[in-house]
Amino acid sequence: MTDRFRQRYGSWALVAGASEGLGEAFASALAGCGLNLVLVARRGEKLKELASRLIQLHQIDVLAITADLGDAGSSVRIIEEAASREIGLLVYNAAASTIGPFLDATVEDHMQTLSVNTRGATELIHSLGRLMLDRGRGGIVVMTSMSAFQGSARIATYAATKSYLLSLSEALSYELADSGIDVLACCAGATRTPNYVSSRPQTGGLFRPPEMEAEDVVEQALSALGRRPVVIAGVRNRLAHYVLHRLLPRRTAVGIMGRAMDRIYGPPPSSKR
Description:
By secondary structure, the chain is α/β, with parallel strands linked by helices. It has a single domain, classed as NAD(P)-binding Rossmann-like Domain (Rossmann fold, 3-Layer(aba) Sandwich). It is 50% helix and 16% strand. The protein has helices spanning 2-9, 21-32, 44-58, 74-81, 107-135, 156-175, 194-198, 214-224, 235-247, 250-265, and strands spanning 12-16, 36-41, 62-66, 87-92, 138-145, 181-188, 191-192, 212-213, 230-232. The strands form two sheets. Strands 3-2-1-4-5-6-9 form a seven-stranded parallel sheet, sandwiched between helices. Helix 6 links the parallel strand 5 (138-145) and strand 6 (181-188). Helix 4 (74-81) runs parallel beside helix 5 (107-135). The longest helix is centred in the middle third of the chain and has 29 residues, at 107-135. It starts with a helix and ends in an 8-residue tail after the last helix.
């Protein structure tokens, strides 16, 4: 993979949402391939710690940029700060979410989720994609979710943004197929990351989602890049997707996911289900 990545994408990759979890796993995997990194996240201290660790372990160059990808125009500053690096691979992993009934959250919470997950992704993909197009090569990995395939109660806005990212990635994979730019949407299910664990999901009882380690998700994503437009990480997730979306009506799939989310996070107080 090291030789393939450097030959196909060059020596620099940018990971957005890199401070922990899947972003940290992507950064570590790409550093292991010998790629230099531009790491972007809101939490500057964690970002600097990760950068120092990767420099020491892999003897690579790392540029850490503290930025909130929910801010309009954040991609402009990122591109300016990284202007001297020829970034040939983008991993967009940054995400925001609000867990709970849609109407219990503030509209500001929902708009923050929209800003990070859709506007931030669109701006950065467009900015770096134009540069890749001029060079005639590049790669874009967009982290989406199993929730992208149907409406998902209790994470309604998050799931909707992941549907947008899945659709955008599929379209770009087709549009850029002859331009030398590989585009991949990686659909992950429950992954043991700090954010997932801190959400305190109730995974006991009869329902237990197929949890994966971040490193396994990343390995499957990077292996699929350049070979297909979409990858669903995990055999159990692929089986669940087949049952829900090939064998059952969409309304049934939405209901199954809604009841599953109720079991994980507890039903809303007003629920009569």
